[in-house]
Predict the 3D structure of the following.
Amino acid sequence: MIERCLTTATVTRFSRTLLATAVASVISMSAMAEPMSEAELIDSIEEIEVTGIRRSLSAAADMKRDDARIVDAIVAEDIGKLPDNNIAEALQRVTGVSINRDFGVGSEVSIRGLPQNRVELNGRSTLGDDRNGVDFQDFPSSFLSAVEVVKSPTPEMIEGALGGTISMKTVRPLDLKEPVTAMSLDAEYADKADHWAPIFNASAGDIWDLGDAGTLGVTAMVSYQDRTLRRDTSEVSLFVFDDIDINQDGVVNSADAALNTPTGHYVVPTEHKFEPFTEERERTALNLSFQWAPTSEKGNFYLDLNTTDRSGGQEAYSILHAGENPVATADSYEDANGALNNYRAESPVIIPKSWSEFRETESSSFALGGEWDFTDKLKVSGEISTAESKSNQPRSEFNWRAIDPVAEAANPSASNEYRPDADIIVSDGSAPSVVYVGGNPYLQTENLAFREYRARTRDTDNEEDALRLDVEYFQPGDLEWFSSFKTGLRVTDRSYERSESEYRVKDIHKNLRDADGNPIVIWQDDIAALYPGAIIVPDVTGDAFEHAGIAGESHLTEFSVYDARQLQNQERTFGMVQQLLAGTNLASTGNLSDNLRESTAQYAFVEEDTFAFYAQANLDFENVQIVLGGRYVKTELTSTAYNQAGDALVSDKGEYSDFLPSINATIHLSDSTLMRFAGAKVMRRPDFNQLSPTFEFNSDLITADRGNPNLDPFRATQFDISLEHYFGEGNMVSATIFYKDVSSFLKDTLYCADLPDEVLSNQNHSIPGNVCIRPSGSGDSASYSFTEDPAELAAYVAEGRNGVLTTTVTNGQSGTIEGFEIGYQQAFDFLPGLWSGLGVNANYTYSDSEDPDGVPLQDISENSYNFQLYWEYGGFGVRLAYTFRDNFLDETGQKRTARVGEQVSFLDPESSDPTQGTDFRDDLEQWDLSANWDINDNFSVVASINNLTAEPTVNQSITGTTWQVRETDRRFNLGLRAKF
């Protein structure tokens, strides 16, 4: 448990008297207050206990000051009380750290713009679905006593962090000074989901004196959370057109050219989609720690157990159209980004669908270790640990297609699609308006035909076994300046396996035949009559983009669909579909598990063995401390997947070694001012999904993602120089200059993949312009084209030239990141009376990055800053926090912007423009407000509001045209804390 610290009065007698008078005035307002003399009051002020946010910041400053590395930290105010209820949201307050959010909740952390970080718990690995470690949403912040962000590594630290290491620390049992029990119960309200969620945390710890048997300490922590969140998403695909008759004179010529693009072509937001997501998350976590020390106090041994069970799912509706032809109207105009605004979308395909994805994740870790002082100079420590994360993710889709029933009855062999025109109004930063001629087609249930049903299940298993042994020898050769020499080794056995199975019946509206071979259609009205309650009109219209706004009335926000909540029950929905298709050519037998077929193209198995050895010297020359040495790492990798035909497993083996030298030097310029220098080589292995050559297809087999088993790891050389000044009680100002030269960084690239007929035979060709076309006679091709003509696409398909537009990962050449950080925190305890409770914590980071093509590196904002203003006095506390990061490159191969680069070149994805397909996240900012009241020594009340102003998240192409808008909940929290 964090030790309590006491302030020392350093003000003049005049200031003391003024402060005492102010405090006395406050105390006198209480009828129960006992009268005190001025001398007694001054003495009591000198022993005021620092609590709350101020204590947390003061302890974090002490950790930074005392560390040999360049480190920033957050510290729990008390057991079970990290300053924020989410680890990522707490870390965003740290200098140099920025975050991304999932459903408005902090999920991903970047250190100086780099998301490739290592997440540890008490110095060992944590596991999630991939390389980065545990998802911060899956690990309770209440378990932690502190979190360090280590930006300059030492040789003893485990390799694998490109940006830095996030080191989470729990309370160690033998650190307890007394028995402790702490509990909290919160109610969290999400405004868009209109849901109250319970959050419960409890911690208990004690130590026992066993006499000659030593001392035993035990801590136990449990956390439970059950929340429902909502997110509205608007997306478009950005196409480039060169035939827009903007002046409507009936002729497309130079007078119609776009004025704000280099080529004169227009960027047109098409394929409009509205997706309201509702996500349920239930999480139960348990942490147990046992620690024993002998009476000799020569060492200690520990056993740590941690488990988290997360379940829940997303229910969502994708209300979209596609395949339209944009036509200018009298209201059309070109905006400053070269985008066409306010146009008529002719003949779009109407494609509403329901989908659901459930997730069950079990993660656990076990560690047994200890340390022993064999002599006054020799200490040996070791640990054996194992960690595992297993996830099961079922997903289902129930899709529709708008069909004209009159035309269908007249000629069932024709496509008969109902394709009403729509008027589009675009507004940057808000959702576009889509209004269809002839009324809302998503409510015309008599026109909606059952198109497709899919049921999929994915299993992911991520495991690591690790053995670590460290030896430290103090003052070798009795040299006073040689504090210690440390060496050690670590070996790991890591495995990652992903498998997927699927049942799919597609194009039902076109292919369904009755027992006599006659074409039939299953209409939405038929299902509504046969299965009451299966078809619903979700109540999302009133609060759809209530904060971001919609450009005008939009038919996309009101729709009739299959109930996604029922879709979560895969067996039940499969049974319904089975009944609907009984007696037809698409009938099936057995249950769902009997009909699931393994998707061999998506199987991945990666085995990774590592060996690491390090040597580290800790030197102390009075006012100069140095930590230097190196770490040697060897990695052996085997990646297994099915061959392209899908009938045999094949493996690729790889091996590489790295030597990672590092130095950390601290110079004490004075008792309160430090200068630090750090230099290191670091490496980061690719994520497992980036290493597997398997495909992850979208539902229409139009696009895919694929890994690359031949990837080299990230490698970088980095340097830091910092200056830190400490003053008063926990006050600090710091500045750091950093430089990182990244070699072999990873980059997303697009190509048109040549796949077997068994895959391409299921490809959806109803929207020709989305299907990539390869050059004649080629296999996979980085050169490809598109066609908007259905007949022309059919001819290409007959020639076998259609492919799947695939994003893969390749090693780039190099890139640099350079910049500086400034941090400042101060408690204004020198002010009189109530004002003495004020304090501030602020930081700013500037990062400049560039790859050889002149494109910024991913996820790096040039400017980011955080500001916290707090006030704590007499048991009351209030904190207002603001965080900001400016726009950054989110992806380099986003398919919805694949046709748009700075040059705005028509249907030429393989132009010389390296910015094509880039996607930028617009400026992000958020205000958070929290307050607390300590009722007495045992109980306190807390309240908070996250995302006070309900800021949306907006993504744009490099030209500045918005393609995605997301809006999430504001979260209101009210809770009770107890500690005994």
User: Anything to note?
Assistant: The first helix runs from residue 13 to 28. The radius of gyration is 31 Å. Residues 1-47 form one domain.
